[in-house]
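Support case: user asked for a sample of complex input and structure output to validate their parser. Sending the pair below.
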Amino acid sequence: MKIVDDGTAKLVMHPARFKILQCISGASAPLFVEQIAESVGEHPRLVSHHLDILQEIGLVNCKYEIAKAKGSARGIAVRLCSPTAKLPQVLSDIAKAVTEVK
Amino acid sequence: MTKIARVKEFGKRVYLTFKLWLTSLVSVLVLSIIIGTNLLFFLPLTVRMALVGIYLIVTEIMLFPFVRLITGSAQQIVSSYRYNNRHKPKELYLPNAKQIAEKMNIKYDKPIYVTDNPSVTGPFTNLISGKIYFPLSEIEELHHTENEATFAHELAHIKYSLRFIVEMSLATLATWVFATFLAQFAINLAIFIIAEFAFMMLTFSFVMRRNESRADWAAGKATTPEAVISVLEYFGAKCKVDGDSITHPSIKSRIKRLKRLFDWTNQQPND
């Protein structure tokens, strides 16, 4: 299995990263870091760290946008995260591998 | 690991624990003879003090491995040593190792040693040789930034090794002072042994847990606290325990402490 050979599976199997991936893949629209953090119960900075890794291995797309915020006329830069086309395949491969092991 | 191997491993651990219990007991008996009884009344004070000095060194040597053994670390080191005689650990240079070492104000130009020994479940440092060992699984399963954070943690142990040795010696000295105080009362020897042992465990545990917190803090500062926390979460999930032991604080409290680094302050843990 490719995801096992290239090390993707091992990196994804980190508990926090796996939760983040599930959260992103289940969302209908791109999510902010704060939204993901709230959903998975982690600190936003930790989520950012995991997102960097997931982006590096090509499972998550991140882009920065300016969002309106209270008390800021110019708005604030937020990181919007969405799944890549590779993600559903990776998640299903992992589920398959886990079932085989069981 | 097969069932037979597990039983063997357990037996070996029980045997080693028993053996070290015996040496510990002998050590306490020696102490009680030196200071608690008048069996050595014919010896001049200087000789008795020299014996006390020897006892201090002996307890340091004997009791420390005993504590390590209870936590499994000594068994891990012994097992690793035996395994490594057959399977040499592979040398690996982490890409940013030099920069991390420079950031921590420590000279370290050695590689790290990666072992596939199944009984090595976490990274550890041999303070005598100054070598850092990593299990292969961790190198493979964690991102390089997280491996660098672990490396920084181990490097901190090397950096603070002298401080650690001094603190351990002070803990031993405190145990000895406590034992001397206890020996002034005509109490049962069994109570004496238990009380001394309990005191020793408390002081040693305090020093060792403090040492871990210090290493976490230094690693978080040298790399990023996020990476250190991520490694801790990984170990927590992998071992399915909170990691609270004599030598290590619980993973939960370590993470909580490291989160303080998010709001950057220069305070040291426990300071």
